[in-house]
Amino acid sequence: xxxxxxxxxxxxxxxxxxxxxxxxxxxxxxxxxxxxxxxxxxxxxxxxxxxxxxxxxxxxxxxxxxxxxxxxxxxxxxxxxxxxxxxxxxxxxxxxxxxxxxxxxxxxxxxxxxxxxxxxxxxxxxxxxxxxxxxxxxxxxxxxxxxxxxxxxxxxxxxxxxxxxxxxxxxxxxxxxxxxxxxxxxxxxxxxxxxxxxxxxxxxxxxxxxxxxxxxxxxxxxxxxxxxxxxxxxxxxxxxxxxxxxxxxxxxxxxxxxxxxxxxxxxxxxxxxxxxxxxxxxxxxxxxxxxxxxxxxxxxxxxxxxxxxxxxxxxxxxxxxxxxxxxxxxxxxxxxxxxxxxxxxxxxxxxxxxxxxxxxxxxxxxxxxxxxxxxxxxxxxxxxxxxxxxxxxxxxxxxxxxxxxxxxxxxxxxxxxxxxxxxxxxxxxxxxxxxxxxxxxxxxxxxxxxxxxxxxxxxxxxxxxxxxxxxxxxxxxxxxxxxxxxxxxxxxxxxxxxx
Length: 499
Prior knowledge:
The protein has helices spanning 56-66, 81-90, 104-109, 111-124, 152-173, 187-200, 214-217, 220-227, 234-244, 268-291, 313-328, 348-354, 388-404, 410-428, 434-453, 463-473, 484-492; strands at residues 11-13, 31-33, 132-138, 144-149, 178-179, 205-210, 248-250, 253-255, 297-302, 305-310, 340-343, 363-365, 368-374, 380-386. It is α+β, with helices and mostly antiparallel strands. Helix 2 crosses helix 5, helix 8 (220-227) packs across helix 10 and helix 14 (410-428) runs antiparallel to helix 15.
């Protein structure tokens, strides 16, 4: 069969004879393909492993970049069986089950038939999204965070939609100060951008704002209208609308509030980013910052957590008033306990001391507490440390697990704690945090020793023995991230990520 994936057309022999022709030519003539057949398909084999590469995402990205004000009308045909197959293998094997009860391993047994049928239903319009299973996760403040677990086929289609269509389009649209749920823009990139802006710009005031119940209060109608600015394929819009309106299943009862995006779904974070891109990012970048503030202003947004730095206090107060009004137009509001204006920056300590005040206040962002400090030569330096409540919450959760594993093999528990510490260091081991990392390590050792000694009334396990095990099983405490200005300068390559 010609023109099929990984199939080549019938070849014909070149008419030019080989050099040194004879019974055994020294150089045989090269075969070439006929020019009568159709051009090759969109799937190419250009990697060293000769696996298929789908350049559809690159073509969509180029079209979105080339036609900034036009709507892309032909998109759904990029959801191919190959794209669905790649999306299936990108899912977690041990993920929780949705309302369909299908596990990854069970679906894999008849994968080819299942994906062909799913592809047919998606393109025929007969695909229907199932309700998501609601799970309530406890929050540090005593409340719960509702998460949704989608059915397996919904996860597959959503992953393919995000990877092949939505991400290529909106990575062109998103602005530089937007971080979170974006490829190649992790939490540490946002932290570096904020640190770089505070230390290098005229920042004296920080407005730390968080949108209250953001995912649960997004108006779906407004979100769909925003998506239609760039997506003209009605089939794609209908798919997204079906996911939004699928509802939740809790204790066997289906319900739907009519607003919000399911937190925990694959497509949810990108849709939430799209909404804030139009509601906040473009408004701040094009309308507010060029016209309102009298001094400098920087901004870093990670999902719904926004930190804005100002040169003057009146600019910060005006921004807080305007952003509240802007969000209220879409039914959103700022969290009253997590939104405040803080005097912060290179002159904050001097100014507060002149007024007879205490040291500058600190603020939290992405798990780090940011505070004002100085270098050895007296220059201003942004200090960062793991937030106390994050450290306390983590140790409390570890203690609960240790009590359940009290009678496990000590070496096995030690190896598990080593992995926990490894993950903690991978995130929090930033420059300037060494003593807090050692504090966490010491508290973790004391927690482990307390659990071991509760196994018996005879406390025979010594600290020397525990220290030897820790030295063998736990990673060493060392800084794993560069200084913000080093990594930030490499990432931006001359382009500002705060503009």
